[in-house]
Amino acid sequence: MDILIEVKELVKIYQLGEIQVPALQGITLSIERGEFVAIMGASGSGKSTFMNILGFLDQPTGGLYLFEGINGENLSREERAEIRNRKIGFVFQGFNLLSKYSALENVELPLIYSKVPGSRRREMARRALSAVGLGDRSHHHPLQLSGGEQQRVAIARALVNQPSLLLADEPTGNLDTKTSKEIMEIFKRLNEEMGITIVMITHEPDIASYGKRKILFKDGKVAGDHTSRL
Amino acid sequence: MTTILASFRIALRALLANKMRSSLTLLGIIIGVGAVIAMISVGSGAKKRIEEQIASMGSNLLVVMSGSATSGGIRFGAGTVPTLTVEDAKAIASEIPGIKYVAPSYYGIAQVVFGNQNWSTVIYGSTPEIFEIREWGLIKGRSLTQQDIDGATKVCILGKTVAENLFGGLDPVGQIVRIKKIPFAVIGVLSPKGQSTWGQDQDDVIFVPLTTAQKRLFGMQFPGMVRSISVQTTDPEVMKIVEEQINGLLRQRHRIPQGQDNDFTVRNLTEVASRAEESAKVMSLLLGAIASISLIVGGIGIMNIMLVSVTERTREIGIRMAVGAKGKDILLQFLIESLMLSLMGGILGIAIGVVGTLILVHFTQWPILISLKAILLAFLFSGSVGVFFGFYPARKASLLNPIDALRYE
User: How many structural domains does chain A have?
Assistant: First the structure.
């Protein structure tokens, strides 16, 4: 199958004053196109650091990272922004929506930076909102929406540019069980029907069970990698 | 890069989100630009006024005054002892090249009576050339002629102030006034000239033929005596040479031996006036400089607010970067924000500057010029202030690391 992500001996060390804190201590794994991966681990295990590097938000201290065969090490700031814009969608635990903008405008945001003209931008954003079941709430501002709705706006924003990779960092961390399930159903549908590769961080086992593959992080290393067969 | 239109919309939203803060920042620029416009207008008004006064005095003008009297070591100032004659004036006109007009003058103060009205003023005896030299036209009647000079006729031309004081609303032309009890026919009224550079009312004067002043009004200590000779040169370049030549010629005619002081003085009035113009220029520059400082202070206000804004919106910057905003997109966004602030401030400042200037005009009666150049300059200047002071905060925002910005609390 087609390999989307390949990392070899990935190392990340944070410099906190005099002290060096190792967050990733040699991660080697690959993720194929169309996979739904759940990354689990205790806090401080390096899973968020790993995801930030996958999403080109942060850079590793050492090791190799290939995304669609492109070596992340040689990319400029601008090129990394370009990849974040066109190839990757982010869903965060805290939603990270712009509170002064309506749901529709929040979803339009990535399209502004890929220079999609105004009318087409709105059309695409509307379609993305409908896809997560928020077509009728597009003019509400984030503070007028429930947590689940806000997260769905964030998902629509992540999807609007039709990325090849969806990264979700504790997407249900701020939501109740029922809403969490709704969000996970959306993820499942995106993965199965649209074939989007999803890498999701969570520490809740029943959320992780939505993933077909579970990777366990411990002290900056992969402690387990298990693919469930259907 | 985002489209410019989208950037403008983003900037506008950000500014509207903090209305109070934006308007206070605007105020700095408004005051700065308003002050620049008002000050430049006042300065160019002052310059214009002086230029008008110079023009009213006559251009390229040299005045030869009679020498100062010396009595017991005390010198009494130019014109106190009559030493000049009509013959001197004729000699200057015929022997020195580069001269356009020469007008010998004899003047004194006398009381003028019309009906039951009286007025004390300067009676100025001269030749018709005086009006050419001073570029002074009539609003009514006729000017002096050579016949008036030759015949020492009892005619006079009134300055505007005199005409108003003696006649009120009446038409003075054709009326008879008495100067030192001698009846004079009014043949004309001069157009108003207003104040001279040193604040004298130039319209408070009566012109009579030179010969009439000499023979009938003030008398002469010797034949052909005049108090001053006005000389107009053909162009400003020759004034220095003509001045020297008049000095030489008159020393020779008055038989002044080497080493002795002149018994006359040549004054270059244009030089005096241009010095006044110079100081007006310096003043307007100074005013402009002070006003510019307030504009720069306004710019620093923008920078301050933009820096606060960048810090406050670090998370927003992080979100934008996470969804694909490049450094230059963020740079452009904040730059446009500060540019919008400064340009809006510029436009409002121009409006306030113009209104302020008009109010100043209304209360001071100064001729204040609102120049389009000053407005354009202030607008461009405020724009550059926006870019200059907005650049540092914008650049700071654009260089943020996406993950650090996202994690910022």
Answer: 1
